[in-house]
């Protein structure tokens, strides 16, 4: 066992997933990821860069990834805002990229040393045109390791930017973790490469509309055309030909087609439960504790912790909802941002939001709501 | 690769007389002389008319990027290739004066980092694609779509900014210069960051509104005080060379792989125990908490340590909330503290503000420095001269040791072992803080 933070395990998980390029810009509460990557990458044969700003950091990562290298950056809300144009570029050029967004209290500079779950929709809806980018939400240090690996796996597999959404508490709190038990996974497979011997290839032509195109690195023997402008299969600038629109639609279709495989969740279901408690990230810990306390007092409640937030893990939701006549969603933001995302998937069951701002939601605030009958 | 030309023949999507295709033609000549493998060349285009060049490229890779950010993408490409890849890739950035100024931080950053990137700035003194608006490189009195009566703002001398940014190769010339292909060749051949600023015409706007001709570009340069030619050619070690010299291409993996060691000490933690430790930033409050968490770990316990401090790291309060438990810990906050340890007035004030003192119950063990004020509490605090007997930097550890003795849950031997693990040879001085402290003779009223 080691006493270790989520930020540190995010970095170690990324290294185990084959990340070899990191460009960073310091911002609380994410800086420890940056510092750990700077310390660890050289002995993994990788490269860490001190970028002059978050736009440079994200763009350098995309550049490295275009060259075929797994790349990651880490930031918090204000820096994430600066990265959005580049994240959209990664979506459009279908370039793998992992962005760790360690949330703090916003808006604006907000509270640097204060946790929050206020960026959940910002992370998801930062792409014009409505393209989904996968978002994974660790609730603790060990989750950070596991889920940053999932982030790399899907980023590579679908050639898309992926966000690992933690927060100050998940990132900076030290916890005892059996790190050795986490450390034996090999790096997930990379992007599907062009067939060997290919001389000419259309960089944006895909095997089918649910899959990303094959990959060739900039700098490799096959000529690559990458562009953030609307393009046809050859990578030629085109406005709105049917082929261009088809490519844009595929950016979403490739995500939707793999939604069920990407859906990660943990459940603690109770037989005969009338209430399902759904939570994610740091709040999931308090929610589970509240569930266990009221269960010890005879209440029947089921618990669902979502680790994949986007694409919405409907496949994980279905079985957990069975038999429940109400849903309680716990998250640390003003209005229950993710509850609004879940609402259409609840089959009309009444939804109760437990929200909070300025500190972790304690179990004692959740318990009385669970004590009420559905 | 394909046997295609470097740059495709033909006029391209530019207005008649535009400077951009002239630069492309010069680039074609330069690349032909250099005879690189096209697979090792990436043309990285910015936004604007200049960015349309990617459709004119034949055999090299092309990466069409975002407005102003081209050199940041190119830096990532070049550095990753130098350290992780072939080490042969030469990204060549084509950017306008608009892109160069919105993204000037990337140009400065690249000049400082010194990756093997060549930047060709196509300076037509205005934003071409968007309709001829002024840019930061528009000369004084220049007529543009947004300065119809002449520009009032002094132009930026971009080449000088990049000289000041220690770019090892800087050149500036005009499109009519017969030496342009040779300048581009030198820039690309240069092993690090190289920039060539080319003064050129936008015939759609600049020459329509200003008495400017191709031949007049030199005169414009003179009036603006712009020197032409190679302004610096002084190679210095690239970032990648420095990195590889320091780190090599080693792939030995993590320095200290994780190990699972069996518990070395016995504990008496019957239920999850929450301890709040508060003091002043810079006085090793969080270190003391970590030592207790490590001691718990040595006893086979689970622990969490949630730290809080103001944004600045070295002033104001510092608070650690520790939970020790034989079961995995879920919620990492402390609703009802089992112990509250306070070593300074900063810490006490923060605990009052955050409502922690209000959650002290009759079963809470409160240990406080003898010199600080506390509001009335439902328990009598244990007052000790922590600061005066251990010193401010070890007061928090002394408080932790006091808790250990009073609560009897974690043995002092485990704390001593944690101190020894952390401080090695320096442990002896630190361990003094673990010794019992005699109560102060009197305390403030
Ligand atoms: C972030 C952003 N802001 C604004 C624009 C709109 N835009 C497109 S081209 C351009 C100006 C380009 O001017 P310049 O870089 O000088 O190139 P030129 O068109 O003259 O070749 C602008 C502002 C954009 N694409 N992106
Ligand atoms: S608008 Fe100006 S910069 Fe653009 S193509 Fe025409 S002449 Fe060239």
Question: Descriptors for this entry?
Answer:
heterodimer; A: 374 residues; alpha/beta; Rossmann fold; 2 domains; five-stranded mixed beta sheet; 14 helices; globular; B: 445 residues; Pyruvate-ferredoxin Oxidoreductase, domain 3; seven-stranded mixed beta sheet; six-stranded mixed beta sheet; elongated; binds thiamine diphosphate; binds iron/sulfur cluster
End-to-end distance of chain B: 86 Å
Return the domain count of chain A. Answer: 2
Oligomer: heterodimer
CATH class group of the largest domain in chain A: Alpha Beta
Q: What is the number of helical segments of chain B per DSSP (H or I, 4+ residues)?
A: 15
What is the chain-wise order of helices and strands of chain A?
EHEHEHEHEHEHEHEHEHHEEHEEHEHEH
What does the largest sheet of chain A look like? 7 strands, mixed
Q: Which structural class is indicated by helix and strand composition of chain B?
A: alpha/beta
CATH topology of the largest domain in chain B: Rossmann fold
């Amino acid at each position: 066992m080691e006493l270790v933070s989520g930020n540190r395990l995010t970095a170690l998980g990324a290294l185990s997933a084959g990340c070899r390029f990191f460009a960073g810009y310091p911002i609380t509460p994410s800086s420890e990821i940056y510092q750990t990557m700077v310390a660890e990458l050289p002995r993994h044969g990788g490269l860490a860069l001190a970028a002059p700003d978050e736009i440079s950091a994200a763009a350098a990562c995309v550049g490295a990834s275009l060259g075929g290298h797994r790349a990651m950056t880490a930031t918090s809300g204000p820096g994430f805002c600066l990265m959005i144009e580049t994240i959209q570029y990664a979506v459009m050029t279908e370039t793998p990229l992992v962005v760790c967004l360690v949330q703090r209290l916003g808006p604006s500079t907000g509270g640097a040393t204060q946790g929050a779950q206020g960026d959940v929709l910002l992370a998801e809806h930062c792409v014009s045109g409505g393209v989904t980018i996968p978002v994974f939400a660790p609730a603790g240090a060990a989750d950070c390791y596991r889920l940053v690996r999932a982030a790399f796996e899907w980023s590579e597999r679908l050639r898309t930017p992926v966000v690992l959404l933690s927060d100050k508490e998940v990132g900076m709190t030290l916890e005892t973790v059996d790190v050795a038990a986490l450390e034996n996974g090999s790096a997930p497979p990379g992007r599907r490469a062009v067939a060997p011997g290919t001389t000419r290839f259309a960089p944006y032509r895909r095997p089918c509309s649910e899959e990303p195109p094959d990959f060739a690195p900039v700098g490799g023997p096959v000529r690559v055309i990458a562009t953030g402008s609307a393009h046809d299969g050859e990578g030629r600038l085109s406005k709105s030909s049917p082929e261009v629109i088809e490519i844009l639609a595929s950016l979403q279709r490739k995500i939707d087609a793999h939604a069920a495989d990407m859906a990660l969740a943990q459940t603690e279901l109770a037989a005969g439960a009338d209430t399902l408690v759904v939570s994610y990230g740091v709040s999931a810990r308090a929610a589970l504790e509240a569930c266990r306390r009221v269960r010890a007092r005879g209440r029947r409640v089921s618990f669902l912790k979502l680790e994949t937030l986007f694409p919405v893990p409907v496949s994980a939701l279905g079985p957990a909802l069975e038999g429940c006549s109400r849903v309680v969603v716990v998250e640390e933001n003003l209005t229950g941002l993710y509850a609004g995302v879940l609402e259409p998937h609840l089959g009309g069951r009444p939804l109760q939001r437990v929200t909070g701002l300025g500190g972790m939601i304690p179990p004692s605030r959740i318990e009385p709501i669970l004590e009420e009958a559905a | 690769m394909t046997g295609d030309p470097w740059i495709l023949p033909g006029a391209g999507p530019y207005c008649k007389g535009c400077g951009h295709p002239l630069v492309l033609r010069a680039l074609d000549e330069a690349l032909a002389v250099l005879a690189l493998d096209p697979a090792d060349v990436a043309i990285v285009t910015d936004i604007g008319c200049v960015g349309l060049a990617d459709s004119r490229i034949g055999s090299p890779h092309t990466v069409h990027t975002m407005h102003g950010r081209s050199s940041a993408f190119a830096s990532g490409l070049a550095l990753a290739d130098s350290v992780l890849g072939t080490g042969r890739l030469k990204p060549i950035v084509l950017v306008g004066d608009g892109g160069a100024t919105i993204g000037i931080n990337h140009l400065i950053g690249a000049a400082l980092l010194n990756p093997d990137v060549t930047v060709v700035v196509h300076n037509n003194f205005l934003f071409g694609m968007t309709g001829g608006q002024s840019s930061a490189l528009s000369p004084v009195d220049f007529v543009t779509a947004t300065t119809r009566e002449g520009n009032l703002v002094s132009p930026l001398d971009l080449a000088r900014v990049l000289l000041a940014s220690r770019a090892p190769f800087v050149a500036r010339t005009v499109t009519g210069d017969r030496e342009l292909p040779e300048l581009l060749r030198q820039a690309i051949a240069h092993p690090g960051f190289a920039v060539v600023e080319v003064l050129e015409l936008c015939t759609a706007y600049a020459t329509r509104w200003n008495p400017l001709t191709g031949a007049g570009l030199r005169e414009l340069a003179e009036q603006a005080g712009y020197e032409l030619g190679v302004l610096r050619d002084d190679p210095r070690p690239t970032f990648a060379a420095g990195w590889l010299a320091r780190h090599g291409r080693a792939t030995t993996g993590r320095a200290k792989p994780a190990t699972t060691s069996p518990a070395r000490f016995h504990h008496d933690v019957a239920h999850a125990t929450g301890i709040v430790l508060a003091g002043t930033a810079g006085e090793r409050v969080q270190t003391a908490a970590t030592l207790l968490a490590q001691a718990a770990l040595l006893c086979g316990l689970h622990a969490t340590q949630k730290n809080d401090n103001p944004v600045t790291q070295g002033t104001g309060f510092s608070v650690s909330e520790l939970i020790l438990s034989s079961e995995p810990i879920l919620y990492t906050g402390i609703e009802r503290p089992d112990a509250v340890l306070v070593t300074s007035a900063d810490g006490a004030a923060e605990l009052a503000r955050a409502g922690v003192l209000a959650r002290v119950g009759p079963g809470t063990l409160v240990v406080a420095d003898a010199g600080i004020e506390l509001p009335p509490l439902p328990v009598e605090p244990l007052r000790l001269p922590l600061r005066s007997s251990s010193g401010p930097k070890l007061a928090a550890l002394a408080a932790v040791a006091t808790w250990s003795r009073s609560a009897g849950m974690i043995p002092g031997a485990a704390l001593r072992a944690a101190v020894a693990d952390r401080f090695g040879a320096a442990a002896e001085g630190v361990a003094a803080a673990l010794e019992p402290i005699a109560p102060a003779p009197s305390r403030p009223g």
